[in-house]
Amino acid sequence: MKRNLALLGILTLVCTLPVQASVQKGDVEVDLNMSYSDRSSANGNPDKEMFAAEIGLDRFITHTIQVGAFIDAAWADQGSTLEAEDLGIGVRARLHFKPSKPNVPYIGVQAMHRNYKQTVGALPESEDKGLVWGILAGMRFDLNEKNDLYIEFEHRFYGGDWGDTWDNANRLMFGIRHLLN
Asked: What is the dihedral of CA 155, 158, 162, 164, to 10 degrees?
């Protein structure tokens, strides 16, 4: 019984210790995520499901505003009918709410230049390039002093050659962020 009370006391003490702010001005983070994307097509083109990976480097310029750059790559393979590769480089900004809490919600915007190559059946390879921009919302969850898990939803719009191929995309990402400093 004494041992259980001691463990309960230690657990209570640990749970009531002040938590260091999740995000702070000057923090530099690297993030890595994986995602699933469901794209609706334009002009009778087939809809596509894609899997993607993204790596980024971000810096907090205030206690709530984060800016950064990222590289994004995606792949689709729908049997013999479609194979696709998609590579982009872009910039983003996020506004964090309640940055002193261990779980931090945020919203943001992003823009990137993308290069998309696809092969459909026996047709020759086609390539689209253009600007992709969008809005995002997410939540980061503290794991420890240096690492956060996060979930992020993006809604993307397409321009350039892309505007003839895609109307929009919704993407759900799961990832980890690591504090470098």
From this structure: 100
Q: In whole angstroms, give the CA distance from residue 30 to residue 123.
A: 39
> Rounded to two decimals, what is the model's pTM?
0.75
| DSSP result, the chain | -HHHHHHHHHHHHHHHSPPPPSS-TT-EEEEEEEEEEEEEESTTPPPEEEEEEEEEEEEESSSSEEEEEEEEEEEEEETTTEEEEEEEEEEEEEEESSTTSSEEEEEEEEEEEEEEEEE-TTSPPEEEEEEEEEEEEEEEEE-SSSEEEEEEEEEEEE-GGGGGTEEEEEEEEEEEEEE--
pLDDT of residue 55: 96
DSSP 121: T
Residue 22 and residue 12: Cα distance in Å, rounded? 21
* 59-99 confidence digits (pLDDT tens): 999 999 999 999 998 887 665 566 778 889 999 999 999 88
Contact 19, 142 (CB under 8 A): yes
